[in-house]
Specification:
Number of helices: 14
Low-confidence stretches: 5-23
Strand content: 25-35%
CATH topology of the largest domain: Beta-galactosidase, Chain A, domain 5
CATH superfamily of the largest domain: alpha-galactosidase from lactobacil brevis
Number of strands: 39
CATH architecture of the largest domain: Distorted Sandwich
Radius of gyration: 27 Å
Largest sheet: 10 strands, antiparallel
Bound molecules: (2R,3S,4R,5S)-2-(hydroxymethyl)piperidine-3,4,5-triol
Strand order of the largest sheet: 1-7-8-9-10-20-16-15-12-13
CATH class of the largest domain: Mainly Beta
Length: 767
């Protein structure tokens, strides 16, 4: 542990400066240069630098970008320029604070840009100012209590903890930065400790902030709605504030806890891209503010609206983690860094690196109209075609025959599930298939026995008529008795039969923030506590049932975020499984999240959300980019489609290792060109690549389309292994550099919504 001395200058030798590095972690290092008072965090290709200035020990952001050899960087903080630092000219303290590139900010003392931390004392005051006190550097990374977070062993990551303090409030702020040997990410989080003698209200605690000059950046955010999640939007960063956020109690369909800012000339392969992604599933704010002097402040954390946390003396508050990313290799570089980080350091459990069973889900097949016989009919057909798991969706419990009742009554409805659940599951198992089940634990229907017994268990504001969503209320999971009751009911169902998969759904967003379980001055804690409660329940579930495959879901893809990925290796991407719509939804999702995490199914046609009819084959190609499964009544689809299923199953088994583990390259996005979509997955060892091409609309009188396929070994020769599937592509052998820089000509295909796969493999004699 290093401390600032009386003059604010640390004077002990830093272990990080002389740290021995093993072969693996030569890619990463953290040092503190005591002379310049600069911290430097080196990831494989980037450096992140923080400085301490002035006798007040302000902590400033110095640099984030390509890896640097030198830590002689303190000059970048412009402390020699007017307005002067407070100690030299206290008369301009406000001007100094309003321009200094803060590493983590205070509030109401002169920095007029939006800040990361706000408080209210018992006397009603809101000023807060932070100064560096000490730091420590260690191997590995601590877990964040009660929260999802990235992880890694002692040889896989290193952590810097900087302790700051507001000496007046006696508030300690611990800033954590973890870096990884295999990925260019900086994982940041913040812990606030009240060392004073009286309670203080935290009215805003964001998790990270980066101040830098605006280099003509463009901002990228993700937007959507139900059935059209995560559309990519790009726009110039301008003066003032531009933000996205959610106050819906979940990360939401509408906006996403992610933002990037990139140089205007950045492409898929080159140029500066910075990004932040929040490892959290509740309310969030992501914002960039450009100041009067052209600097930007990017910040991310729990949305301050409706947030107020009472911190008692001696208490601490842990804010969730933000992943900061820089790539000099364009947007594609950013994407692959996120995929690598999440695959290696966020997703857990036995399915982390495993192929997932191909499932068939009965939602679009039957909706609520099913019984044991119907499910077994589907299972019989499905198992004969090679499908590996039957998932029974909504409607198996209470008296739920539509979406108006029974949430909370987690008891099998044996008038539908005749013979009982165990009988059904055993029969499905006898067919050689696994069995999975749908639940929605966070909800309560007004028409339920649970609500009749415990009307106060719903989140609500006393004296107001509760706002319904899908005719249901949200359960107040901040109350332990509620969590325990629901968990026990669901666990009893899971224990009653051989259930190997759970789809955990959440079909309405939060509103009416009010809890009968919290005192008046803690009502502002409700939404965060609800998110913590969700995490606690899912942690309990995967601990008690370690072999369970958990798939999260929220009215489609409203809670597809890194927080949920910590508990479930896959998340249902969207209720829109139309192959064309999925091109955009999956591209937006895969901007950040690995293909192995994207719940993607071949669904019925005409599609239930857009009414479009696409070829069965194309639906299969598009679903291959995710976990792969079926969402249709296999007993009712046309014979010709059914006959394609064994081939699709074989295709999944052939390609899924590559799709799950490989490097993803966007080649052309349908959302940009309205004509075709193309992406590739390249094996880490560059031995093969799978290219998916979907021509959305046929066009008259057009010549072929040139696509470039990056990522393969430039000096090796590849052949199209499945060339017979597309005889119009006459040349079948290419060098990697030719594929990357010259590309191949994709012949026009007659018709709409037609897809093709190209599988490139190393020419055999090079193995
Ligand atoms: C929303 C999900 O996204 C659907 O797949 C389905 O499970 C329904 N909920 C069931 O209510």
């Amino acid at each position: 542990m290093h401390r600032a001395n009386a003059l604010g200058r640390g004077n002990r030798k830093c272990s990080g400066c002389t740290a021995k590095t093993t072969e693996r972690n030569q890619n990463m290092n953290i040092i503190y240069n005591e002379k310049n008072r600069v911290f430097k965090l080196d990831t494989p290709h980037t450096s992140y630098c923080i400085g301490v200035v002035d006798e007040e020990n302000f902590l400033g952001h110095v640099y984030y970008g390509r890896k640097l050899g030198s830590d002689d960087l303190a000059y970048l903080m412009r402390t020699g320029e007017p307005p002067f630092v407070p100690s030299e000219n206290n008369r301009d303290r406000t001007s100094f604070l309003d321009t200094f590139p803060m590493e983590y900010t205070g509030h109401n003392l002169g920095d007029y840009r939006e800040g990361t931390l706000s408080v209210r004392t018992l006397s009603g005051h809101t000023g807060v100012s932070l100064s560096y006190v000490s730091h420590s550097i260690y191997d590995g990374k601590k877990a964040l209590e009660g929260l999802p977070a990235t992880f890694g062993g002692k040889d896989e990551c290193k952590t810097l903890e900087i302790i700051c303090e507001d000496p007046v409030l006696k508030l300690q702020v611990v800033l954590s930065y973890s870096i990884f040997a295999d990925t260019d990410a900086v994982a940041r989080s913040v812990r606030i400790v009240n060392q004073g003698g009286e309670a203080v209200y935290l009215t805003k605690v964001l998790s990270a902030c980066i101040d830098m000059d605006n280099d003509n950046y463009e901002m990228i955010t993700l937007h959507g709605s139900w059935a059209r999640e995560r559309a990519i939007q790009t726009y110039p960063v301008r003066k003032g504030k531009q933000s996205v956020g959610s106050v819906r109690g979940e990360s939401s369909h509408q906006e996403h806890p992610f933002m990037a800012w990139k140089s205007r000339t950045a492409t898929e392969e080159t140029g500066d891209v910075y990004a932040m992604n929040f490892v959290y599933s509740g309310n969030f704010l992501a914002q960039i503010e450009e100041s009067q002097f052209g600097s930007i402040r990017a910040m991310m954390g729990i949305h301050p609206e409706d947030f107020c946390w009472k911190l008692e003396p001696g208490g601490s508050f842990q804010a969730p983690e933000v992943i900061c990313m820089y790539s000099a290799g364009g947007l594609g570089g950013m994407t692959r860094n996120f995929h690598e980080l999440y695959r290696n350091h966020l997703i857990r459990g036995m399915y982390k690196d495993k192929k997932r069973p191909i499932l068939i889900n009965n939602w679009e097949a039957t909706y609520f109209d099913f019984d044991t016989d119907k499910l077994l009919d589907i299972a019989r057909q499905a198992s004969a075609l090679g499908i590996e798991m039957l998932v029974m969706d909504d409607g198996w419990f209470g008296h739920r025959d539509d979406d108006n009742s029974s949430l909370g009554d987690w008891f099998v409805n044996e008038s539908k599930i005749k013979g009982g659940l165990k009988y059904l599951v055993d029969e499905v198992n006898r067919l050689g298939m696994k069995f999975g089940i749908w639940v929605e634990p966070e909800m309560i229907s007004p028409d339920s026995d649970l609500y009749k017994e415990h009307p106060d268990w719903a989140i609500q504001i006393p004296g107001r008529v509760g706002s319904l969503g899908r005719n249901q209320y949200v359960l107040d999971l901040t109350r332990k008795e509620v969590r325990d009751c629901i968990y026990e009911r669901i666990a009893a169902v899971l224990r009653s039969a051989n259930i190997e998969y759970v789809k955990w759904d959440m079909n309405r967003q939060l509103s009416d923030f009010g809890s009968f379980g919290l005192p008046a001055d803690r009502q502002g804690e409700l939404v965060h506590r609800q998110t913590l409660a969700l995490y606690e329940m899912q942690e309990r579930l995967i601990t008690d049932f370690p072999n369970l495959l958990l798939e999260n879901c929220s009215g489609g893809g409203a809670r597809f975020d890194p927080g949920m990925l910590y508990y479930s290796p896959q998340i249902w991407c969207s209720d829109d499984a139309d192959a064309v719509e999925r091109l955009s939804i999956q591209a937006g999702t895969a901007l950040i999240y690995p293909l192995s995490t994207m719940g993607a199914h071949v669904s019925d046609c005409p599609n239930h959300t857009v009414g479009r009819t696409t070829p069965f084959e194309t639906r299969g190609y598009v679903a291959l980019a995710g976990t792969f499964g079926y969402e249709l009544d296999v007993t009712k689809i046309p014979e010709a489609d059914r006959e394609m299923i064994p081939d699709q199953v074989a295709m999944y088994h052939k390609y899924n290792d590559l799709v799950r583990q490989g490097d993803y390259y966007r080649i052309a996005r349908y959302a940009d060109n309205h004509f075709y979509d193309c992406y590739a997955v390249v094996a880490k060892d560059k031995s093969e690549a799978l290219v998916t091409y979907v021509q959305v609309l046929g066009r008259p009188n057009f010549h072929s389309r040139r696509i470039r396929i990056p990522g393969l070994d430039p000096e090796k020769t590849y052949v199209i292994e499945n060339a017979a599937d597309w005889p119009e592509i006459r040349q079948t052998e290419y060098r990697g550099d030719t594929l990357h820089y010259a590309g191949i000509n994709i012949p026009p295909i007659s018709g709409d919504f037609k897809g093709r796969l190209l599988h490139f493999v190393l020419r055999s004699h090079q193995f």
